[in-house]
Design goal:
With about 500 residues, the chain is of the alpha/beta class. It has 16 helices and 18 strands. Helices cover about 45% and strands about 20% of the residues. Helix 9 (about 320-340) crosses helix 10 (about 350-360) and helix 14 (about 460-470) crosses helix 16.
């Protein structure tokens, strides 16, 4: 029988092997002390069961020669074959010499085996000391961040650097064709003397699948982008007017690249939260990310509590610009990996203006300065982020809705907005005059629209929406939104509103 103290001295990998041989299910989820205790109990029960079977099947009467099994324990946890020793004096005079020689040979064999196993165990212990102070291995998960030097770190505390990050070697990254943004689960060892981070020992899963499967996945940049064809309906509560207005004037589809253009204090963050809540309620299978760059700390807390279904990734304004950039880029790589797996992903970025400012501060000067002090090279990375939104042919989509600031009094903000103005295929405009009059949502209906919106609507619905626009065009901005809000409050759904409009005009 395996002694409990011997099991506790073994490494976790050896215990996993023993547990597998004993048939213990889901043994990887147990810690080392718990697994050792379970192995001891199972081994004890199996030994008792075998002893009962042998007692039941054996002959109870005294035979000519009775043998008692003598069990010796090996250092690796296995047991030697029982050695038969005569306990009855019958026949002892005839076989005394043979028995003595057999016992001597067996003792010499055991001595050689013990010395061999002892050398192997010492080598294993020395190897374990080199790998991780001889400590037990733990299972850790996180997002892989690959550095330009080829090695990477597993970000375990979100998408920012932390003390709990795990080092991933270059050989492991090349062996499994790992990419930045992969979600990895694997066994790690503690940091040895002179090291700052623990290291990855064995990779168990990559994005929830076996590591070998990642070699044949497609590359995001090689996928074919299309116009959004499938609609994301935001309407889900009759009293939530903002999502219903957006569905009418600027519909959103899977793969949309939309921009919420707003002056300060016009309600852009509130509208973005309502969009997030609508998507989380209507499309729970969609992966929802909220990226807050250079944001206020209390705003981050409000986001986390308002939209619990979303993964909120934030870098507050008290952190350096390099941290804003690192977080945003790692989130972008993460959502690309999800799209490669065929997932539908929605990213809400608040906001593209502050992220561009961070790149302008952190990027090395190129010598080409635009009006407002914007470096021309600093606008390429945020354009790359925003341009990643697309509807993928044959499955998968990445939808990005980003906020852009205007009318801030800063020439830099105006230049940034002008650079992004033609890159999106959906634009939602907010009006400061409406916000000053406390008209919410302060949406400028005339300037808000979606490219190729007919691909997202049925022909009859598109005709009715265009009729609504033609009716509202005769009014000014405030009267348009006030009339639309009033009529929407009188109906419970947008289809009901359009049918009522058709009945009145008919």
């Amino acid at each position: 029988m395996t002694e409990r103290s011997t099991l506790e001295r073994k490494r976790l990998s050896d215990l996993h092997q023993i547990a597998s041989q004993l048939g213990i299910k889901q043994y990887r989820k147990y810690r080392k002390p718990e697994l050792a205790e379970m192995i001891y109990k199972v081994a004890t029960e199996q030994a008792a069961s075998q002893q009962n079977d042998s007692t039941t099947n054996g002959d109870a009467t005294t035979t000519a020669t009775q043998e008692v099994p003598v069990t010796t324990e090996e250092p690796n946890g296995a047991t030697e074959t029982p050695v038969a020793a005569p306990v009855d004096g019958f026949g002892e005079a005839d076989s005394n010499l043979a028995t003595t020689e057999q016992v001597e040979h067996q003792r010499q064999d055991r001595s050689r085996t013990d010395r061999k196993n002892g050398r192997q165990n010492r080598r294993q212990e020395q190897r374990g000391d080199r790998d991780g102070k001889g400590g037990e291995e733990n299972v850790q998960s996180g997002i892989l961040d690959v550095l330009p030097d080829g090695f990477g770190f597993l970000r375990t505390g979100g998408y920012s650097q932390s003390k709990g990050d795990v080092y991933v070697s270059t050989s492991q990254i090349k062996r499994f064709s790992l990419r930045r943004g992969d979600q990895i689960v694997g066994q790690i060892r503690p940091a040895r003397e002179g090291e700052k981070y623990p290291a990855m020992v064995r990779i168990e899963t990559v994005n929830g699948q076996e590591p070998q499967k990642g070699r044949w996945r497609p590359n995001f940049d090689d996928l074919t982008p299309l116009y959004p064809m499938e609609r994301l309906r935001l309407e889900w509560k009759p009293n939530d007017i903002a999502p219903r207005v957006i569905d009418l004037v600027a519909p959103i589809g899977k793969g949309q690249r939309g921009m919420v253009v707003s002056p300060p204090k016009a309600g852009k963050t509130t509208i973005l939260k309502q969009i997030a809540q609508s998507i989380a309620a209507n499309y729970p299978e969609t992966k929802l990310f909220v990226v807050l760059a250079d944001e206020r700390p209390e705003e981050v807390t409000d986001w986390q509590r308002s939209v619990e279904e979303a993964e909120v990734v934030a870098s507050t304004f008290d952190q350096p610009a390099d941290n804003h950039i690192a977080v945003a880029e790692l989130v972008l790589e993460r959502v690309k990996r999800l799209v490669e797996e065929g997932e539908d992903v929605v990213v809400l970025l608040d906001g593209i203006t502050r992220l561009s400012r961070a790149y302008n501060l952190a990027a090395p000067a190129s010598g080409r300065i635009l009006s407002g002090g914007v470096d021309s090279a600093a606008l390429y990375p945020p354009k790359k982020f925003f341009g990643a939104a697309r509807n993928i042919e044959n499955g998968g989509s990445l939808t990005i809705l980003a906020t852009a600031l205007v009318e801030t009094g800063s020439r830099m903000d105006e230049v940034i907005f002008e650079e992004f103005k033609g890159t999106g295929n959906m634009e939602l405009r907010l009006d400061r005059k409406l916000a000053n009059r406390r008209i919410y949502p302060a949406i400028n209906i005339e300037d808000s629209s979606t490219r190729k919106e007919e691909l997202l609507m049925e022909p009859a619905e598109a005709q009715r929406v265009w009729q609504v626009r033609s009716i509202l065009n005769a009014l000014d901005s405030a009267q348009k939104i006030e009339l639309l809000i009033q009529k929407l409050k009188e109906t419970r759904t947008n289809p009901e509103f359009l049918r009522e409009l058709q009945r009145v005009r008919g």
